[in-house]
Amino acid sequence: MERGRSKGPQHRTVTALADALALEGDDCDQFLELAREGRLRDHWTRPTGQCDLPRPIDDFTGRTAELTWTTELVRPRGAPGAAGVGLITGSAGLGKTTFAVRAAHALRPDFPGGVLFLDLFGMSSHPMPVTESLALLLRALGVIEQEIPADVAGRASLYRSLLRQRRVLVVLDNAASEGQVRPLLPGDGVGRALVTSRRLLAGLEGVRRLSLGPLPLLEATELLTGILKGRSASDDGAAISRLVELCDGLPLALRIIGNRLVSRPGWKAAELAARLGNEQGRLEQLKAGDLKIANAFAMSYEQLTRSSRQVFRRLSLIPGRDFDATLAAVVGGVDVEDAWDVLDELVDLGLLQDSAASRYRFHDLVRLFADDRLQQEDTVAERETVTEAVTSWLLQMATGAGRWFESGHGQAASGLSSPEEADRWLRVNVDNWMGALRAAAGTGRHSAVLDCAESLDWFSDRWMHAPHWLEVFTLGADAAAALGDQARQANQLNLLAWVHLVPRDDPETALRYTAQALDLATRSGATDEMASAHHNAGGALRSLGRLSEAIASETRAAEMFKASGDIDSYSQCLGALGTCLRDAGRHTEALEQYLGLWGLLNDNRSGMRPSVVAFTRPIALARIGECLALLGHRSEAIFKLTEAISLMEQAQLPSQQARSLETLAALLAEEGRSEESRSAYARAAEVYEEVGDAEASSRCRDLA
């Protein structure tokens, strides 16, 4: 500054002055910000700046397809024309600037007029004014100071006229807004431009867009390995893989980790991975010198309004990995319309990722940043209030959705208008309502936990291979035990028996649960739960090959349900009894049993709930087809199974559909209909894969 080379003080000088003057709080913050503004002004007006392109990073990795995109976009081809402007967007830490610089260096031979680079300071509190940016670019293009027009329109016109005939590539980095960028774009000439921004800049016309995402696992591993080149070979592959996983594909995080290890040869990669494994301290570990991941996120955070910051922080309290605007409104304490506006703003700044399904999610490290801001800026009481509201809302929604399948209508509070809507909500929000269920159990809200677990009984049949049911019904059983309600505890134990019988295929454990359920049900006089215990025991005994005992248990259960007037459960026992008879080789009796069930399902006076009829009908029809096949009536069996599979698809019963497809494929092969058989096996493999049964999927794929 004394020599006149700079008008802005260095940060360390300002900090030393602040300490010497004993500045604290707002006074200190204001002092540092004023100095920062001075440095920015100095950067913009320093006469030595000629918009030189920064050096490329030697260990740049990946982004092959994206580099090809830039080449095809900006490489001049033939006559002058419009276009040739690429907008590169993405959240903090994704390496937009590094990527643009790399692309510009690769393209330099195609631009004899030069490659210019200009940082527009879009994330600062004072982005570079258009007048200043045009002046810098004009000087870099060789215009002397006296010939630079005074007004923006004149400068922009001169700038475009120069680019019209010059093959110049301009890299406009860190743009704040459309208005800041629009005057800097080339017109209908051979000049080209690459623009980077954290914002989407949706208002820019005539540009092609490239959204950078996190690096794929392989490229992320290559980047970290490249940065660590030359370190001791003692860094084991497992530790490197764990570090890559914790960085979640974010290039800045990978570079910080790599730089920390390179600068400290004595450190072990495994030790650093262990430190990063602690979520509470992960952001603090992601720093190396003046590189700090939290600072990158903070620049975007500071762009938000006060109310948007609050919503952003509180979104970190959502239990699952993604959410919609309705849940965002609940956690943010705003109406849905306002939530949409905030979510759009967060996506625009790269603080959230969105999808075509109108669902949103954090990058893992951004979530940690949001949680850190929440801990710093919201009181304990405020956090607890929001957590309670979100937990209650999610449990109410899940309980209401589940009741669509047990009683034919959901809670009015759920806002879900049909079983199909309830089914979709439960599936897409499973991580959220499961998190709420755990939270409620942890805080002793036993009644709410038990209500929710009970409501999901019939829905669990529709999604039987989901991995959550063991935990759901265990929490339900624990809640019933805490409430001292033996009958409801027996109900949850019966559901746990079902979990071990169907999704987990562990009949011995299922029998243990049925014994406990039967004991509690008998002591409490819960007849329906006694019948359920007999029904589940019948299924377990059948799986163990103890068919006589299984038939006796299912017969007893059917009698008890019929006597109590529970026709829905009675119908399930009829089907199970038919299966026991089939497995015992009594095929004619099994067919009669299933035909009796079919008649009940089609009797409008039976009293069965429509949802149970819709669930049971395709399964009963498939079993009729199987019995017909065993009795040698293949053509009729194929017809029944084909109809059943169609009904299963409509009712969204993939597990049953996959089994029936495999049975149909085998029958078609026996009939010599090879092409149809292979098609059925291929479809069965696909559906088995959808429900997570890799072994069955592979078996069918081999036969397709």
Automatic annotation (TrEMBL):
Taxonomy, superkingdom: Bacteria
InterPro entries in UniProt: P-loop_NTPase, TPR-like_helical_dom_sf, TPR_rpt, WH-like_DNA-bd_sf
Pfam family, one: TPR_12
Name of the protein: Tetratricopeptide (TPR) repeat protein
Species, as recorded: Streptosporangium album
Origin organism lineage: Bacteria, Bacillati, Actinomycetota, Actinomycetes, Streptosporangiales
